[in-house]
Design goal:
alpha/beta, six-stranded parallel beta sheet, globular
């Protein structure tokens, strides 16, 4: 049996790393040590943009990559599928490693040539299964039965487990200015952080900071938040300042903008903070940012979007706090008072620092025992080892059941409010009734015409509120 594997992975060319690049770069050496003949695809680089318009460089790279015998396995990530779609004719087996679902869905979502779908978390694996199991009621089949039966999760390596003070491969970025370091250590301000760029729910983040400062009592000093300058743009700042003007406040009272930091500087800043916020708009497929914060001893408060709510048990440093009041009302408005309870919880925890630090230490031990390079090596080599011996699995549509989708964080059946990673919303009364009636139902009990009518009217599967699961 051939043991050649072709890696069609993005950001695998070595430092300086992003998180995805760190993971992808580790795969080749791991497989080489385990006896694989590894070939790695290098995408063409062209800073002037010609390649994006006329991809001659890509054609040349693919031709050179094909010069040897076809590989036994081709391993893609979702971005890698933009260079070549997984197909049966090129490699004997195809596998896709998912760092998220933002790219290339058309190349994998219904592709029967993908033999293995590797998710970076159990949460993402459940979301993938719900996509592959999207029901076709008329044909009584699911969208991608092969994908449904061949999806599993693996444990990613967290860079801070290998290098607790910051991995040298994450050197791109600024150091902490000396003046900022002095302010961190002065005790004149209670510092928090929300430095993950581009994902914040700004109303939630601002509301929490507002209430923290309105509710704090002496001798607690003012509370401020480090945020990425890439997130708090001038346009965002002007909008937030306009919201704060009636209260005589501005963004400068709450936020300090920080440039992109090297990982060593980021970890140093996290260690100087008393809390982190991850009230985000977009679902987190894994959660490097919140795990790194806990590993540095700084607890995180989050709405739990995506995998953030699944990473660690309660009282291990990640605090998931969300209510249905955080959803838009009938006028499309959200009330900043909905986040007052989050601020009260943070203030309570600030008053008992030793207990919170103990929780983070407990969380850090779990982080180190779970997301290590050793576990990643074991998981990925085991997943790729037995392709030829894997039995062909089949789905029985009628034996599947309906349940709440993996993206749903909660449904209030009294009001129809639904918290979801896909889109939080208010369900119509008929939709709520359908959700209650359909949960747990076997597909053999459900008639195609009625299910098509319900889906046409309410779109419960298309919005991720409901999903199909195997027996």
């Amino acid at each position: 049996m051939s043991n050649t594997i072709a890696l069609m992975l993005s950001q695998s060319g070595g430092p300086p790393f992003h998180s995805v690049g760190y993971v992808n770069h580790a795969i080749g050496p791991i497989l080489t040590r385990n006896g694989w003949d590894v070939r790695s695809f290098e995408p063409p680089r062209n800073d002037l943009g010609e390649e994006a318009m006329l991809p001659y460089g890509l054609a040349g790279q693919l031709t050179r990559f094909d010069a040897d015998a076809p590989p036994h396995i081709a391993l893609f990530d979702a971005t890698g599928t933009a260079a070549r779609s997984p197909a049966r004719g090129w490699a004997r087996h195809n596998a896709v490693l998912y760092h998220g679902l933002a790219y290339g869905a058309g190349a994998w979502i219904a592709n029967p040539a993908v033999d293995l779908h590797l998710a970076n978390s159990p949460y993402l694996a459940d979301v993938l299964r719900s996509l592959f199991a999207f029901p076709n009621w008329r044909q009584r089949r699911v969208l991608n039965p092969r994908g449904l039966m061949r999806t599993q999760s693996i444990r990613l390596p967290l860079p801070s487990v290998e290098c607790p003070d910051g991995h040298p491969g994450f050197a791109h970025g600024a150091d902490l200015p000396p003046a900022l370091l002095r302010e961190l250590d002065s005790g004149a301000t209670v510092w928090g952080h929300a430095l993950q760029p581009g994902k914040q729910d700004w109303l939630a983040t601002l509301s929490i900071l507002y209430w923290l400062n309105e509710l704090r009592t002496a001798p607690l000093p003012p509370i401020r938040l480090f945020v990425s300058e890439h997130s708090l743009t001038e346009d965002v700042r002007r909008g937030l300042d306009a919201m704060l003007a009636p209260a005589g406040r501005s963004c400068a009272d709450y936020f300090v903008r920080v440039p992109h930091l090297s990982q060593a500087a980021l970890f140093r800043l996290m260690r100087g903070c008393r809390f982190g916020l991850a009230y985000n708009r977009f679902p987190e497929p894994f959660g490097f940012y919140v795990l790194e914060s806990v590993h540095q001893g700084c607890p995180v408060y989050t709405n739990g979007v995506g995998n953030n709510r699944h990473l660690l048990p309660a009282e291990h440093g990640i605090n998931v706090y969300e209510t249905f009041d955080m959803i838009e009302d009938a006028r499309g408005q959200r009330d900043p008072a909905a986040w007052r309870d989050v601020a009260e919880r943070i203030l309570q925890d600030l008053a008992q620092g030793d207990a919170v630090r103990a929780q983070c230490k407990q969380g850090a031990r779990m982080v180190e025992s779970t997301w290590s390079l050793g576990n990643f090596s074991n998981d990925i080599t085991q997943a790729l080892r037995d392709f030829d011996g894997a039995p062909e699995l089949r789905t029985d549509f009628d034996s599947m059941r309906v349940q709440l989708g993996a993206a749903v964080r909660g449904v209030d059946t009294a009001t129809g409010r639904c918290l979801s990673d896909y889109t939080s919303c208010r369900l119509a009364p008929g939709a709520v009734e359908a959700v209650e009636n359909l949960q747990g139902q076997l597909c053999e009990q459900l008639q195609a015409g009625e299910m098509e009518r319900i889906e046409e009217e309410f779109g419960l599967f298309a919005s991720g509120v409901l999903a199909m699961v195997g027996a």
